[in-house]
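Need residues for this backbone.
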């Protein structure tokens, strides 16, 4: 017999020995023994009841139950030297805290932390520009990690000084000492403004160049400085120009030879003891390629730019060799690598080239990040 409820006269006195949802009905002494009735009369709390009463760890529940963990921020708390001394420091952990292979790491540090830095132009003007900084050091095999905030603090200790090669060396030496490392590398990227005049209208406007200064200091005491510089120009195809003239000459058909926005990325290593300005690097590129993109343009400037492109047709191979000639002749430059990309308007792909000076143990023509040259 199954029932949801049982009359009291059927309940046996033995029922107290059964679970709450079992009851004995009838006379236990009668033939056949007791009858067991299964009922939910005294069932426990339902799922809905439990959800209403349970508490949460971090938030007040719908039933109003307080969270098990109290959260809050004490704005009045002040850190004292004794308190700071009690803070755990992972640098003091045992060697078995090092996970993975027990090997040194060549570079570890911070990337893209930003701060305003001062840069001096060739004309002796000081510009304050937003800079993106990457700072790394080597890590020995028996160390868990580095204190990365010390790299950042090294910059803030010198943030009001004008950026120079000597300043970069000072920063490198400072965070080599602060993080107790043997090799250090620093790269500071920024957008550098220069005013250029239009070709014929005498208007002028700002051209911005992606520039980065890089410094490397090794455990052997070597100190090397590099400049990264992007130059955007127009490239008009010599083959397309010839074919266009052929169509006009033989069939009287007007055509437009294809040209495209293009970019050269130059990395130079300065000759020790020699100084080359950003303006000098830009001038070398402009003299080599002649067709830098324009800022302020009126009709006469657009016509002039078309003429300029016609006078300086170039394949991507030509661009690499023209740049090589200029940079190779400058004694302030010890070594260089040049990567060019012409974002072809004819093709669905780009035309690219890479060339280097060829210094022993210097740059190699191994640049492959052409996607970063889209402009």
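Answer:
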């Amino acid at each position: 017999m199954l029932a949801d409820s049982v009359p009291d006269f059927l309940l046996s006195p033995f029922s107290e020995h059964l679970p709450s949802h079992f009851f004995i009905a009838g006379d236990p002494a009668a033939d056949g023994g007791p009858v067991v009735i299964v009922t939910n009369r005294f069932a426990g709390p339902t799922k809905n009841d439990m959800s209403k009463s349970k508490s949460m760890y971090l938030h007040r529940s719908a039933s109003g139950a307080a969270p098990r963990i109290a959260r809050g921020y004490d704005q009045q708390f002040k850190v004292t030297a004794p308190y700071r001394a009690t803070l755990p420091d992972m640098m003091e952990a045992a060697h078995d805290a090092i996970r993975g292979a027990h090997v040194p790491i060549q570079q570890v540090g911070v990337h893209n932390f930003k701060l305003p830095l001062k840069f001096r132009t060739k004309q002796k003007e000081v510009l304050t520009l937003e800079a993106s900084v990457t700072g790394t050091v080597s890590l020995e095999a028996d160390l868990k990690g580095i204190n990365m905030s010390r790299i950042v603090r090294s910059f803030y200790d010198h943030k009001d000084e004008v950026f120079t090669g000597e300043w970069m060396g000072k920063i490198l030496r400072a965070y080599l000492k602060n993080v107790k490392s043997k090799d250090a590398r620093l790269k500071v990227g920024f957008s550098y403004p220069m005013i250029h005049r239009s070709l014929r209208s005498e208007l002028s406007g700002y051209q911005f160049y992606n520039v980065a200064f890089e410094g490397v200091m090794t455990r052997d005491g070597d100190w090397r400085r590099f400049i990264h510089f992007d130059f955007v120009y127009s490239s008009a195809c010599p083959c397309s120009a010839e074919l266009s003239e052929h169509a006009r000459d033989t069939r009287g058909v007007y055509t437009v030879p294809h040209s495209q926005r293009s970019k050269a990325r130059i990395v130079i290593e300065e000759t020790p003891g020699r100084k080359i300005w950003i303006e000098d690097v830009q001038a070398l590129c402009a003299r080599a390629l002649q067709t830098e993109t324009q800022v302020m343009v009126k009709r006469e400037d657009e016509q002039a730019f078309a003429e300029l492109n016609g006078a300086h047709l170039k394949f991507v191979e030509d661009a690499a060799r023209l740049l090589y000639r200029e940079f190779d002749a400058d004694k302030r430059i010890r070594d260089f690598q040049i990567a060019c990309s012409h974002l072809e308007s004819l093709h669905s792909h780009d035309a690219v080239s890479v060339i280097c000076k060829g210094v022993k143990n210097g740059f190699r023509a191994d640049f492959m990040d052409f996607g970063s040259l889209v402009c």
